[in-house]
Design a protein that fits this description.
about 425 residues, alpha/beta, FAD/NAD(P)-binding domain, five-stranded parallel β-sheet, about 35% helix, disordered C terminus, FAD/NAD-bd_sf, monooxygenase, flavoprotein
């Protein structure tokens, strides 16, 4: 079986950025045989949140390459140039392209590396390949849409699968009910509904705000926005606070003691979590203000409320909602419920479970490499699930380009040793057979 230098699980922005970095790094230091495995049938970046009028919350300069290599041909500016839109974009006088356009940029970059990616396969297991008492290689097992299992060997592994939808416990038993769905499936699931009239949106972040406004603009819909908070708090994007997304701040967070890291995360949590853009908050406020002017009650802002219980029947989805200030509760029936409740980033632990004897709790070093026990030769890297050690920027585009450079540097040191040892290990049985 062919042995890859690197297998990447997932082919979203993180691993696309890594594919670019490996190509550019390889021009100077030698090519790395990299293969990526993506469960989707083709590239797609949050396709169910590509709402009209939705814009990026981050500057286009923080694309997949520019902070690492401003001269890269894979920059957003070069994408605009190749699409013959550079001058028009300049005339927009904005740093924040539409989400549709940035998705097109990502698809454009991904198209250059499709030959390296196996689409439509879902990785379900990573197993150790033993040589004596040592783990010399990793066997990555995936399953395609037809159920066929594929196996690949690799000297190193990088996991960049993004987050899994966070489903509140009260909704856990309704994951097969098409009337209840996470924001990550918003457009697709809403399109399957039979003319929903009354909907609930649960959450207080950017996704909840965007979805509420999208639904509020649809004729005939009534929307309840249900949040535990009293008021939306805008994302703090002031210049000094934005420095926490600079690469050097990652050093600062990582080099702090564990307890201090947690305090730093908590201090700046409102830069990334439950913090919509101020413009969105103003638009939502205007929706409710117009209702006061007209005297209508089409939409409700159920602030300081929490879902206590959920019951689904033929009539709809019944939410019992408690007022956190008074303790009173009431029940409302909805045609659909959208859970804008964020993501969990634990998928890597499930994938790496067979390697737990060597990788333990998957703690990482500064270069995102999982620290392994003696006798474990493959290098394993994590992208997008190191927030507790590397800071709030870890799940965002902000440090993605620079992070890939750090992973490339670590690979450069790890691969020669891993490659030489693995080749020698697999040559021994062949030599023994020849002698026999």
């Amino acid at each position: 079986m062919h042995i890859h230098d690197l297998i990447g699980i997932g082919f979203g922005p993180s691993n696309i950025a890594l594919a670019i970095a490996l190509e550019e790094h390889g021009q100077r230091h030698g090519k790395v045989d990299a293969c990526f495995i993506e469960r989707q049938g083709g590239f797609a970046w949050h396709p169910d949140m590509l709402l009209d009028h939705a814009h990026m919350q981050i500057s286009f300069l923080k694309d997949l390459v520019t902070p690492r290599n401003p001269s890269s041909r894979y920059s957003f500016l070069n994408y605009l140039h190749e699409k013959s839109r550079l001058q028009d974009f300049i005339n927009l006088k904005t740093f924040f392209p539409s989400r549709h356009e940035f998705n097109d940029y990502l698809a454009w970059t991904a198209s250059h590396f499709e030959h390296q990616c196996a689409f439509g396969e879902s990785v379900f297991e990573v197993l150790p390949e033993m040589q004596g008492k040592d783990v010399s290689l990793l066997r990555v097992r995936s399953r395609d849409a037809s159920g066929q299992v594929h196996e690949r060997l690799t000297r190193s592994l990088v996991i960049g699968v993004g987050g899994a939808p966070n489903i509140p416990p009260s909704f856990a038993g309704l994951q097969d009910d098409t009337r209840v769905f996470h924001s990550s499936r918003y457009l697709s699931e809403l399109g399957r509904q039979q003319a929903p009239r009354r909907l609930a949106v649960i959450g207080a972040g950017q996704s909840a705000a965007e979805i509420f406004l999208d639904l509020a603009q649809r004729d005939g819909t009534e929307v309840d926005l249900i949040t535990r908070c009293w008021a939306f708090k805008p994302s703090d994007d002031s210049p000094f606070v934005n420095e926490i997304f600079n690469p050097e701040y990652t050093d600062y967070v990582f080099n702090n003691a564990t307890g201090q890291r947690a305090a730093l995360l908590e201090e700046y949590m409102n830069t990334n979590y439950a913090a919509p853009d101020l413009e969105l908050i103003q638009q939502i406020f205007e929706v409710f203000y117009r209702q006061k002017v007209t005297g209508s009650q089409r939409h409700r802002f159920r602030r300081r409320h929490e879902v206590e219980a959920v019951v689904a029947d033929d009539a709809g989805v019944h939410l019992r909602v408690a007022n956190l200030d008074t303790g009173d509760s009431d029940s409302t029936c909805y045609d659909g419920v959208v859970l804008a409740t964020g993501y969990q980033r634990q998928v890597h632990r499930d994938l790496l479970a067979p390697l737990q004897p060597w990788l333990g709790e998957c703690s990482v070093n500064r270069h995102y490499q999982v620290q392994a026990a003696e006798g474990f030769r493959p290098a394993v890297f994590l992208q997008g699930c190191c927030e507790p050690t590397h800071g709030l920027s870890d799940t965002l585009l902000s440090v993605m380009a620079v992070r890939t450079a750090e992973i490339c540097q670590a690979l450069q040191h790890a691969l020669p040793r891993a490659s030489a040892r693995a080749s020698a290990a697999h040559a021994e049985p062949v030599a023994a057979m020849a002698q026999g």
